[in-house]
Write a structure and sequence with these properties.
This protein has about 350 residues and is mainly β. The protein folds into three domains: about 70 residues, no CATH class; about 45 residues, TSP-1 type 1 repeat (Single Sheet), CATH 2.20.100.10; about 140 residues, no CATH class. It contains two helices and 19 strands. This is Complement factor properdin. It comes from Podarcis lilfordi (Lilford's wall lizard). Keywords: Disulfide bond, Repeat, Secreted, Signal. It is found in: Secreted. It holds the Pfam family TSR.
């Protein structure tokens, strides 16, 4: 049998004997198998009416003289560790902090602490050398000009925290700026804006009867745009209203063509449904003639020349098609449609 178990058995046996026949003057207690030094509480009740000396044969035990009394340790009287220092009693200038320790154990020889006694210590503390002082606001400055020159805007005014200035981390109560709406009673000007350019006109030579379609002969074509939306003295659109360029007319001209590479696969169709398909295609694109792409304009200025019109490309048939070949394939691993 282990020593602790033997001692526990001895305490219980002593308790039973104490109940049956307690010696004159013996002090019976509530005997506990553990005393918590940190909390000063007794745990693990062994029995009631146990002689104090029998209970305290094990110095790790604890006891209570009555059920609602304080728990006392069986070991010799000793001081607990000091508690942490309390917060400072003030938030600025000088205050105090306290801490304490408790005596646990039975009364011992002279010089030992007394049971249930408590000691206190106190020291000075100073979180801040001075206390914050609230400042005062100066007078409001004048309102700023309205933030806009037409319609409605905002005005702002400010004041400073200098009357008096705050001290030791203090501040002024309230806001240092405020706003209000303002109305100029004016309608805002509306600047003009360009519409999109029109389509290019037919590439031709208007000053002569020379036919320039499908030949290495340059013509001219123009496109126009209009300025819209200007009102209430707004700005006019900047730039020309007409654009003119030199051109070669290839409208409906029969030109040698070449097949493009396959395009990327398109979207699956239908996007939600059974058996969606994807497609890609190759197109027969015209090979434009090797005409000069610049001409000399007025005052020796070099002008670019553009091809205009939609030619008719000619390619060797591909899969029986002359202009477009399309390929389709089913989309794979399609999840079901969501609601």
């Amino acid at each position: 049998m282990a020593g602790g178990e033997e001692f526990r058995l001895l305490v219980v046996v002593s308790w039973w004997f104490g109940v049956l026949e307690a010696p004159a003057g013996a002090q019976n207690v509530f005997c506990y198998g553990a005393f918590d030094v940190t909390s000063g509480k007794c745990n693990d009740l062994l029995g009631e009416g146990v002689a104090q000396d029998d209970c305290c044969l094990n110095h790790q035990y604890g006891f209570q003289l009555d059920r609602n009394g304080p728990c006392q340790a069986c070991q010799a009287a000793h001081w607990s560790d000091w508690s942490p220092w309390s917060p400072c009693s003030v938030s600025c200038r000088e205050g105090v902090q306290r801490r304490n320790r408790t005596c646990h154990g039975r009364n011992g020889p002279a010089g030992f602490c007394q049971a249930s006694a408590r000691q206190w210590e106190m020291k000075a503390c100073s979180p801040m050398a001075c206390c914050p002082r609230v400042g005062g606001w100066s007078a409001w400055a004048a309102w700023s000009p309205c933030s806009v020159t037409c319609l409605r805007g905002l005005q702002t005014r400010k004041r400073t925290c200098t009357n008096p200035a705050p001290d030791c981390g203090g501040s002024c109560l309230g806001d240092g700026a405020e706003q209000r709406s303002c109305d100029t009673n004016l309608i805002c000007p509306m600047d003009g804006r360009w519409r999109e350019w029109s389509e290019w006109s037919v590439c031709e030579r208007k000053a002569s009867n020379i036919r320039i379609a499908c030949d290495e002969l340059t013509g001219l074509q123009a496109r126009t745009r209009t300025c819209v939306g200007r009102a209430h003295e707004g700005k006019r659109c900047v730039g020309p209203t007409m654009d003119i360029r030199s051109c070669y007319n290839v409208q409906l001209c029969s030109l040698k063509g070449a097949w493009t590479e396959w395009s990327p696969w398109g979207l699956c169709n239908p996007p939600c449904g059974e058996k969606p398909m994807k497609s890609r295609k190759r197109e027969c694109k015209a090979i434009y003639p090797n005409y000069p792409m610049t001409v000399e304009g007025e005052n020796g200025k070099v002008l670019n020349v553009s091809f205009w019109g939609r030619p008719r490309p000619n390619c060797q048939p591909l899969d029986g098609q002359g202009l477009v070949v399309e390929e389709q394939a089913p989309c794979q691993n399609v999840p079901p449609c969501e609601d």
